[in-house]
């Protein structure tokens, strides 16, 4: 249901009887309103998929609508979620940042918002209607987005001495402005290497991804291989 992003220690200590591992929790919600314009147009249903980034202190770092049936539903969900409060996840008893996928369903009878497993937001709507907005697959872009800022992750010599080697896979979105959004680690990885990879990707910038000349949201994956470089001929 949640994806570990990075460990931290800035949150309030958990109660003594708290479980050492626990998912991020929504502890206070602002009500999501059904858009009046949609009602006036006879629209009685809508759906939005949101991805939320919460840090190890429970602070909302980013929230991104990744799929929706109407823009005004996404705007209504976004406005409310920015007012929400969170209790951070815990990993091994320590507070940890998390990415959450939130499914928001609008009906005339009310609005239901619930956390769902992180999956592929490019899928069709889970119930009625199709998403009119969703990430465009990289293969469907006019061309691969060009990086305008792309520093590599740090890999200090002491990590090599400590035997910290291996691969780290980072999944992230590139929005219509070329900004990296919601990077997260996929699979298991050394926590120090993972933190280094995440820090690097968060600083990347791209030209806006485009489909038929129009800026779009896309999803990308980067694999980092941390290993000592082979000595050169003059080493």
Task: Explain the layout of strands and helices.
Layout: E1 2-7, E2 25-28, H1 36-40, E3 45-54, E4 60-68, H2 71-81, E5 85-87, E6 89-91, E7 94-107, E8 110-116, E9 147-149, H3 157-161, E10 166-174, E11 180-186, H4 191-202, E12 205-206, E13 210-211, E14 214-215, E15 218-226
Describe this structure as you would to a colleague.
The protein has helices at residues 36-40, 71-81, 157-161, 191-202, and strands at 2-7, 25-28, 45-54, 60-68, 85-87, 89-91, 94-107, 110-116, 147-149, 166-174, 180-186, 205-206, 210-211, 214-215, 218-226. The chain is mainly beta and 235 residues long. The strands form five sheets. Strands 1, 3, 4, 6, 7 and 8 form a six-stranded antiparallel β-sheet that branches. It has a three-stranded antiparallel β-sheet with strand order 11-10-15, with helices on one face. A two-stranded antiparallel sheet has the order 2-5. It is flat, with a radius of gyration of 20 Å.
Classify the helix fraction into a percent range. Answer: 10-25%
Mass-distribution shape: flat
Strand content: 35-45%
Count, helices: 4
Question: What separation lies between the terminal Cα atoms?
Answer: 48 Å
Structural class: mainly beta
Q: Cα-atom Rg, whole angstroms? A: 20 Å
Short description:
This protein is mainly beta and 235 residues long.
